[in-house]
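To: structure desk
From: M.T.
Subject: fold request, one chain
Message: Could you run this one when you get a chance? Sequence is below, nothing fancy, just the single chain.
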Amino acid sequence: MTAGKSDSDSGFREFNVGFDDDGIRLDRWFKRHLPETSFTTVAMWARTGQLRVDGARATPGDRIAAGQMLRVPPPEADKAAADVDKPRRVRERVILSDEETELAQSMVIHKDFQAFVLNKPPGLATQGGTKTTQHVDGLLDGLQYDNEGRPKLVHRLDKDTSGALLVARTSRAAAFFAKAFSGRTARKVYWALVVDVPSIEDGMIELPIAKQPGTGGEKMHVDEAEGAPARTRYRVIERAGNRAAWVELQPFTGRTHQLRVHMAAIGHPIVGDGKYGGAAAFLTGGISRKMHLHARRIKVDHPDGGSIDVTAELPTHFAESLKQLGFEEKLGDDLVLDEKTAPTREQMKSRAKAHAKSVRKDRKGERRGRGIVEEKTTGKPAPKTSGPRTGAGSKFGAPRSGPRVEGAKPAGRGRPGGAGKPGPRSGPGTR
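Reply: Done. Structure tokens follow.
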């Protein structure tokens, strides 16, 4: 998303839909980029025709595409709309047990006036759900202290993923961090143990991800046709023969289960991730069956200036697995965080346009292909109907031969050389 521009006459703001927002609902866009604007306000703007997409009236449930222009009422309209809304019920502070309060406060590894960073243990969900009674969100009342406002989550970790989780202490900080995550300026570094050893020790995985049909949204998969763009960089830190590798992962998009799906897609599932790796995701020899994925570090600009840069200690099972495989924890922290790897807004916008053009071209090829096949079969021109992208002339009709992985150099025997010194990316990606 590009920064909002204001119409000097009307005060209306304009925003350009970014690459990472391609295909999402309009109400979801507001949650990401203007979290201070309530759904009720967005709905009211839609009813009165003040909310526009490329000049046309829009509703909160409309899907938006990269490159489109959103027209949004001025900031003062937020307050005006809130004044006419029904009075909101004030959420009462939940009184936690002594054990729950102690658990909440034991997770804090960084604290200032605007934010906490927690070290979330594996097995604890970030938010509640079906049959989930204890979760981080429900424990945040134990971190309110003397503040009037309740702490707010600004991103999530999977239930079985451990590590650094940022929590805002004020509404201003929550809006600031939300923009940092949506704009991809916040950096997250994960550690993982994966099965076998990647042939390329420093690679970028670019595979689109979508919800897997029939799973109720509980499982994701690589979907070249309908998936949202997703990018993950990985670096091999150390290897245990050909049995397993310790890798650093940096996501440059925020798709659900992105790291787990990407590593499984290139044939190296995360150890303990049976959901995406199946039986092959578990190692013998006493290695824990728990998930070996840990948010090691988070770095993000601070609302008051400077930055937050925090490292989270490993959970017991992960630390023991490293020792058992003969890995030294210090090697992972010696890797230098590459600040230039994330794409710029201009690059993301350009890629979004190229992606949209490619999809339109493929759809045109499908229609032509179906017409040729039907005309040859029946001798009659094919009717102009829409259908799934599997007909002749479509690149989606046959499965891909393998995932795209761009890399620097193959991993040799023993420990990869030069921690923090990845080789040049001069060759084309491998499949």
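Reply (cont.): Residues 385-401, 412-431 have pLDDT under 50 and may be disordered. Let me know if you need anything else for the meeting.
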